[in-house]
Amino acid sequence: MTYHVGRQGVLRLVLSGGRKTTITEQFVQPPYHIQRAIHCDDTIYDMAHLYMMSSSGGILGKDNHTIQITLKGKARARLTTQGATRIYDTQGMVATQSISITLEQDSYLEFLPDITIPYRNSRYVQSVDIVCHPSATIIYTDILSSGRRAFGEMFEYSSFKSTVSAKSDTDTWRLYDASQIEPTQNSISKYGIMGTYDIVSTIYILAPASIIPKVYSDINDTMLHHKDVSCGASITHSKDGIIVRMLANKTEAILHMMYSVVRVVRHHAVSPVV
Question: What are the backbone dihedrals phi and psi of residue 213, each rounded to the nearest 5 degrees, phi first?
Answer without folding.
Answer: -60, -40
